[in-house]
Amino acid sequence: MNDKTRRIFVPTAVWMIAGAALALLARSLAGAQAKALAPYAISVFATSPPNATQPDSIVSWGDNIIVGFQNHVAKDGGDGKSSTIVEFSASGEVKRSFSVPGHNDGLRIVGDGKLWALQNEDANPNLVVIDLESAEQTPYQFAPTPHGGGYDDIVVVRGEVYLTASNPNLDPLGVNVFPALVRARLSNGNVLLEPVLNANAAATDIASGATVSLNLTDPDSMTKDLKGNIVFTSQADSELVFVGHVGTGEQTLGLLGITSTATGPGGALITIDDTAFVPPGAAYLLVSDVGSGIIYRIDRTPFGFEPGQAYSASDTAGVVGTLNLDTGAVTPIVTGLSSARGLLFVKSGRHSSVD
C-alpha cells in the first residue's frame, strides 16, 4: 500500500458496544421536538454514534445508509481535525466508520462502490475516495481555487462528476464572477476541474419567465431531478438553480426563488440545504438534523410519496417541506428540527439517492 492510500476505519463491534445505551436513550427521547403534520409521520432512524456529531450528507450503498458527521470541524479544515463517515444498516445500526481530514460536506457514490467524500467547503478543499469493498482510502488534492473558497457538493450525470464552487470571493459590486459549477476528474492524486457554469450567467426565472442575470454568492447542496437536470441551491441567496443538458452546447438554466410560510405569514425568503425528488417506489424519506445529532425517518401514510414531488430541508427554519416547482414555495411537513440538512429517499427493498 503506497503512502497515497490509507485504510482507516473503525470496526462494527466497537461502535455498537459503545453506542448501544446512548442510542436507546436518544431513541426514547427523540421526536419530542420534531413534529410531522398529517398525513406524514416521523420517527428516529439512527442517532450519532459516540465521538461523532453533526450529521449532514446522506447517501446509500446497496441496502446501507452512509452519513457524514462534521464533528464541529472548521469549514476550512484549519483546526486540523477530522470528520467521521458512518455506514448504517437498513435498520439504523452502525456497521463501520471512516475518518477523513477536514470538514465533510459532500458525499456521493461514483461508479462501482467508490464513495467520494468532499471536505472544507470554505477554503483548502480536499477529496478522499473510499473504496467501500476494500475500505481503502485515497486522498486527492485541488489546485488553488480561482474563487477563493472550496467545493461543497457532488453529483453524477451521464458518468461525469460535477461540483459546486462554494464560499466565493465577490467583486467590489458584490458579484460572483467565478464558476459556480465545475466538472471534475481525477489524475495522479489531483482533482482536475473544468468550468461549466459561471455564477453571473443569464437564466430564466421559472416563476415569471423573465430572463435574469444570476449572482450566485453561495453555491451549495446539489442533486438531480427525475429528468436528469442538475439542481443546486445558492443557499444564502434563497435560490435554486436548474441546469439542463449540463456541459453541452444545449445547456439551459432556470432560477427559482425559495419562500415559505415557515418564516412568517404570507411567505418570505427561506434558506434551504438539500432538496430531494421522489423516485418511483420511494418508501420513506431520511433527513439529518445537525443540532440534535439524529437522522429521522419520514413516512407518508396511507398512500405514500408521489413520484417527482420535490422536498426541501431548511437549515435555518428547521423544517422539511414540499417544494412547489412553479412558485418556489416550501410548505412544511415536519417542524421543530434544529437544522435540517441532508435528504435521501429510500426505495422499497433497497436504498436510492436517485443518482
Question: How would you characterize this protein structure?
Answer:
The structure is a single chain. By secondary structure, this protein is mainly β. The chain has a single domain (9-27, 36-351), classed as Neuraminidase (6 Propeller). Helices cover 5% and strands 50% of the residues. The chain has 1 helix and 31 strands. The chain has one helix at 12-29, and strands at 9-10, 35-36, 40-47, 55-61, 64-69, 82-88, 94-101, 104-110, 114-119, 126-131, 137-142, 150-157, 160-166, 179-187, 190-198, 202-205, 211-213, 219-224, 230-234, 239-244, 252-257, 259-260, 268-269, 275-277, 282-289, 294-300, 310-314, 319-323, 329-335, 340-347, 350-351. An 8-stranded mixed β-sheet has the order 8-9-10-11-15-14-13-12, with no helix packed on it. Strands 2, 22, 23, 24, 27, 28 and 29 form a 7-stranded mixed β-sheet that branches. The protein has a 6-stranded mixed β-sheet with strand order 17-16-21-20-19-18, with no helix packed on it.
